[in-house]
Input
Amino acid sequence: MSLNNRYEFIFLFDVKDGNPNGDPDAGNLPRVDAETGQGLVTDVCLKRKVRNYVGLVKEETPPYEIYIKEKAVLNRNNLRAYEALELKHESKKLPKKEEDAKKVTQWMCRNFFDIRTFGAVMSTEINTGQVRGPIQINFARSIDPIVSAEHSITRMAVTTEKEAEQQSGDNRTMGRKFTVPYGLYRCHGYVSANLAKQTGFSEDDLQLFWDALINMLDHDRSASRGEMSPCALYVFKHESPLGNAPARKLFELVEVKKISEGPARSFKDYQVIVDQDKLPQGVELIKLLD
Amino acid sequence: MGFCLEVSGEFACFTRPEMKVERVSYDVITPSAARSIFEAILWKPAIQWQVTQIDVLNPIKWMNLRRNEVESIVSARTAQTAMKEGVGDLGIYVDEQRQQRASLLLKDVRYRIYAQFSMTDQAGPQDSAAKFADMFRRRAEKGQCFNQPYLGCREFSCDFELVSDKSDAVEPIEETRDLGFMLYDLDYTDSASPSPLFFRAQMKNGCVMVPSRDSQEVRG
Output
């Protein structure tokens, strides 16, 4: 059930009047590549959303439990029964301890979706064994430079008695929030069939991952996010586990172009051009969301 | 058997071991990160890659980035207890164990990396250098890999291209600099605690020569 194909994917998503990923170094302004003005969304930001979606849909039960949790989503019963580990008596040449460490790692991979998918650093007594997950996600980058708008907002309440006294009962506070009026972001990712074997990441897991990319933004609404939506998900499926073409050549087949005058304000202002004719042999393009 | 790969990526972070928490990258790719690019394309226990030369093709540019990260790693002991008892609370709650860490990354990097492999004592009777060389060449030409190679961290994946004809190759940058002591690689002889090896990296006209592992210049 593990994967027999290498995959690459292109995920396009947009944001309207929201902040897709704040920069802690810049007072939570939307992240920007200072040289080009393009917006950035980090890999870890997108992985967080995938985890939250899977946690939500699979209700945090093994084998789809999520290891790296957000309290806000969870905070339910802390103790949960795990499937009992079937101890197999195999005489291998490895030292006993290392064998145990391997067992723990495999058990963790089996129970936790995010460890199977993205990997994890496991501290064992022997060394810091790492599981490298099959899925690699790069930073997402906006197609065009983004503009950060700053909005001052007021609150008709104060936090402390002292503030109320100072304002002689006026009770107002000012706040700030930052938004991107519109931004279309493009993210590249990779799925290694070989690493999937090592963590037991299955075809079903991969389907769940695609579902997560398509649906995760709909379950991540908040005051700061504005309107974020998935726009397109293109998956390149190679015939062989090692792949049939360089990733870069595949990514170059998909061009996202602005087709309207003036600043873009919706996905309609862009056109996605896919050069199907140049698709290398042994690679299939699957448009999971178009 | 020597090969040359041209690798490029939008970002890279070859973390200095002395600045691990708030990651600061070395100015150029380390031999160990370069080795792992070759290994991502082909590696077997029978062979061992040795990087010989690194050409820096793009000017060295930096970018600062701060992210929320967690401070703990998976505890094997907790997992073992949960396995035995059948109950347990394993997750890491990110908002309680959060650290905001900055990383100083490299931007728009492009390198030409020369490496060769030698056979190890794990090689079987039917393993020959020519066989592995063919395998590597075939894979690199087709863009095949075991997993997508990356520049220091997995979120900074890189493109790779096999360079066979060096006649129209881009010249390395015109920069000569002493890069100081740089991580060479890790010595895995004691697999329980790999020890770092260092060497004095000199960039001459954009080119860093990498000494072989057993030379006097590589120190543990």
